[in-house]
Amino acid sequence: MTDDQLLRYSRHILLNEIGVEGQERLAASHALVIGAGGLGSPVVLYLGSAGVGRITLVDDDVVDLTNLQRQLAHTTARVGLAKAESARLAVGALNPEVELLPVVARADAAMLGELTAAADVVIDCSDNFATRQAINAACVRHGKPLVSGAAIRFDGQLTVYDTRSPASPCYACVFPPDQAVEETRCATMGVFAPLVGIIGAMQAAEALKLLSGTGTSLAGRLQMLDARSMDWSELRIPRDSACPVCSRRAP
Predict the structure, then answer these.
(1) What is the Cα–Cα distance from 108 to 122, expressed in whole angstroms?
(2) d(Cα 69, Cα 237) in Å, to the nearest integer?
(3) Is residue 24 included in any domain, yes or no?
(4) With DSSP H G I counted as helix, E B as strand and the rest as coil, what are the percentages for the chain, rounded to 5?
(5) Whole domain around residue 180: which residue ranges?
(6) Domain harbouring 206, CATH code
(7) What angle (nearest 5°) sits at the alpha carbon of residue 159, between those of residues 158 and 163?
(8) Using a CB cutoff of 8 Å and minimum separation of 24, what contacts does 59-62 make?
(9) How confident is the model at residue 31 (pLDDT cuts 50, 70, 90)?
(10) Total structural domains in the chain?
(11) Does a structural domain hold residue 31?
(12) Residue 57 bridge partners (DSSP)
């Protein structure tokens, strides 16, 4: 590491659990982030500031004035710009050493398969059930850990799906693909601005732990936040031996 890097990342390096070796692992890592909105904003900002060497960010939307209440990677001056490109500018201003590749496209199964295969960790910051299922299927197929978060109104949830462990469920174990789901969107339901920051920052924390080899992930545990009272609850989530997605892949 250079002197500038030792200084930039000094507060990580001081941590026994990370140190120089962990920081070098982050620099050599590749994170795939799906979604550059409320959750994706803190995710890419923290991954970038922490020195994750390469980030691929997928989003087909453009910055809108209504986003700025909570999507902190974007600015008023960048209204109308592609969100993935806006986030690239934000991360570059924080840490020019990080390579952020913006993919301005809607994530489909073929794209997700290709991008997931090249990544070390996948962070789901999307906002619809079909995309979440497609991301999960790609992660199961390629054996990559998936950090999943969601936030709407005052309610948030967070977990890690890591089918490299035989006991860890995938997203489809918890939310079956054939389950009838009523889509909820911020545009109609609203969202408490700091909630996406809380959940997104925790997604970034889980991803950084996985990439640096630090601590224990949330795999097998679903955490839920009621931001009205700031009460957290946790559920143990087992693997479903009959899951139509991960049961087809041998542990």
Answers:
(1) 15
(2) 33
(3) yes
(4) 40, 20, 40
(5) 20-248
(6) 3.40.50.720
(7) 160
(8) 59/34, 59/35, 59/83, 59/84, 59/87, 59/102, 59/103, 59/104, 60/104, 60/105, 60/106, 61/36, 61/37
(9) very high
(10) 1
(11) yes
(12) 33, 102
- Count helices and strands (H / E) in the chain: 10, 8
- Active-site position among 139, 170, 173, 186: 186
Does residue 12 belong to any structural domain of this protein? no
Q: How far is CA 20 from the centre of its chain?
A: 24
Is residue 186 part of the annotated active site? The answer reads: yes
- Both structure tokens of 143: 């054996």
What residues have CB less than 8 Å from 145, skipping those under 6 apart?
121, 122, 139, 160, 161, 162, 164, 210, 217, 219
Cα 155 to chain centroid distance, Å, stands at 17
More confident residue, 194 or 178: 194
Write out pLDDT tens, residues 97-156.
Answer: 999 999 999 999 999 999 999 999 999 999 999 999 999 999 999 999 999 999 999 999
What is the maximal distance between C-alpha atoms in the chain? 54
Predicted TM-score (pTM) of the model is 0.95
Q: Is the pLDDT of residue 180 over 80?
A: no
pLDDT computed for residue 12 by the predictor: 97
